[in-house]
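Model the whole thing, not chain by chain.
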Amino acid sequence: MLRFLVRRSLGAVVILLIISALTFFLFYSIPRDPALLACGKNCSPEALEVVRRNMGIDKPVPVQYWEYMVGVFAGRDFAVGPCPAPCLGYSFVDNTPVWKTILDRFPTTVSLAAGAAVVFLTVGLGAGMLAAARRGTLVDKVFSAGSLVVSSLQIYFIGPLAIALFVYQLGWLSQPEYVNLTEDPAGWFAGLLLPWFVLSMIFTANYTRMARSTMIEQLQEDHVRTARAKGMSRPFVFFRYAWRGSLIPIVTIFGVDMGSLFGGAMITEFTFTLPGLGRLAVQSVLNTDLPMLMGVMLFAATAIILCNVLVDAAYAFIDPRVRLS
Amino acid sequence: MNRNLARRGRAAAVALAAGALVLTACSDGGGGGGGGEKGGTEEAEQQGLVQFAGAEESQGPAEDVEGAKPGGTIRVFQRDSYAHLDPAQIYVSDEGSLASLIHRRLTTVKMDNDGEYSVVGDLATDSGERSDDGRTWTYTLKDGIKFEDGSPITSKDIRHTFERQFADFITEGPSYVQSWLAGKTEYRDLLPGGPYKGDHLPDSVLETPDDKTVVFHFKKPQNDLPYALGMPGYGVVPAGSKDTRQKYDKDPLATGPYKIESFKSGKSMTLVRNTEWDPETDPARHQYPDKFEITFNHQNDDSSKRLLSDTGENQFATSFNNAVDAGTIPQVMGDAEAEKRTISGYQTYVAAFAINMDRIKDHDVRLAIAHALPIKSILAPYGGAAGGELAGGLISPLLPGYEKGYDPFGKLKKPGGDPEKAKQLLEKAGKVGMKLSFPFRNATEEQQGSVAIADALEKAGFDVQRKELPADTYYDLIGKVDNKYDLYRSNWGHDWVSSSTVIPPQFDGRRIEDGGNNYSHVKDDRINSEIDRISAIADPEKAAPEWFELNKYIVEEVTPMVPAYYYKHMQISGSKIGGMVYNNDLSGIDPTKLYVKQ
């Protein structure tokens, strides 16, 4: 297990280095100058040079990249103050520390992702298993057709509709917003309820379809049939053997989904005006804000890699036949 | 725009073209306008001169807003977070609105309850004492003015405020006063690095003979100084260790009626009462609500829908800068109750199309373009009449000297364009079928407008080559002197209520350079000499009609640019918000007059 984790961690570092280099050098291939953004209304060539120097983008790109990576591991000093490791720099746009901003936005994204996961796992897996257990019946057909319809919808379509209906028209739900969980748990729950359900709708449909198909596959396995032949009850076999066996592909996809969601659910965050990492990523691109963009990219990549490692580790617990090596 | 895009001034235009306000001419004021709960400025009211006021008008407190009572919290939905809080870095309109609550400067533009505007002394006792033909200006500070920590504001702080404008890290605010003090555009070598190494501007430039007196000495007459000093970018910053240089941008000391309790960049800001602010010293501001709770990331459509719904806490909400989006305007206009909660007025910007005079040298061809352009179709994607008013000239209705009804090409009567007249002119020039390179931004509104423009020009006999450009690099591309384009949109807004901030930047033939603002590359001796002559006129009232006459000459006789429309702006608030007044100086709602209805 330890060897496995060490090897995966080293691999993750290599992947992150590649991502950081790609992001950094691709950024400078864009025909945009971040200094122009920060140079006032009547920007003169002299003022533009001053801004470039202040931003540290007057140096060759490889030198900038080297200094950036040194900062990540050893920290750096900026005019606005010291930046201890892991230093992801200061935003070009508002001079805030990137790391601090990411940490500030992460709870929103985690709250959104975790809440939605609870909903789509509960509803999606439940509906999928029920459809598998009642294969060929009306329940199966309704769930299968329903999941197909729902998975065809888009968040940017159902999100505003849901707000218009449940918030503005009926007044049943609160205006979507993020309130700190520790400050106001009830406000946190009420503010995220609608985003959770809208975000989870798409995932629920996918997990319903996936759970149904894997369960049907498992129910046709020899060991399941053997268990039934030995006289075990249908529910016992269903949950003890078939359900457990169907989890591996679901956990794999769940790990990838959660990694992506922790990196930011951009469309959902935009639709519901939630200040999460996804929104931050898009803003940093629009603002030509390299430090913020690098920070969010690295953070999101780390989240995805970490989730994948956890998934791999989880295999051993789900299926004793799997051995980590 | 916009703090999202290209060079800040250009970003403004980019964002405006996309239907959103980013940058305004921060200290511009407009004559008249505003006033009243219902809001809604009338064109006639907005014309006129903003007078420099004396000591009496500069005294506090500001006259009460009818029906206003202190107390309550106002929620504010904003699109963009505040990139800067250091006044010296403030130029954009959303930060300008915030600055009206937290930062004070030597002068400010005051709007009274009748909607009349004047430049009054803010920290100073009056709008300034002019001498030596405008080369010297003297200001005396009021008693009782303090920073939020209770320390008094002295002339030492004012000196420091202007000296730190020369520091390398101050790059985004206005540069007028620095350039005037230095006597040249590249001003930084007058005090390299600013005052932080112990150096100061000589008394021959900036003098502070005692704790209360500040004297500016300029090389040339600067008759617009009271206007310029009213820009938020010249808000006072304390001398000494309280000026934390770059860090000050995140944690400034307030001098206005509110101070910052908390700020999470990109998320939220809370403003609370500044107990050290003395209303007796302030002729322009109020302190009605207990708090402003500002949240960011609200696009115009989001804030419009929230405020239009008037549900729950949305009743107690407004936006300082978000406009009602074009898609929601019909709903608002069709709802009498909602319409009562709106205000609207002109913004500083004039939308126009520059013609590259390096490439199109024949005046008849330029006139043909002017007659052909369908300005009604250009405005339509921005909400039609709610988003702007069709323009005949390049001078905004907010500026003194503006002549209503000026329409040299008959475009107000034929807003869809006059292809027959255009074709005649093109035939006269012998250029029927000439290729016309027409770039536009890849923003929805411009994409829609570009189709109508191309169609109208084709009907007139041009062979139009449409080129879609990225919105965020658009102004960089058209700003190159050797660009290969013929016709391109460029918007411009004044910095204060004088056409001196409109005509010279755009049409001075001695300022053609990469990244410059003379997008049409016009080089005309008469324009240049008139710019010099009118700039030297000390009396703004006399200068104003002269600028408008020069505007006529430019539009009719040279035609480097075709005016399209004057930007307008509609805003909406919740039903529990009182004191909604459109302030031309802020190009939007006046935050200092807002209160919560009890």
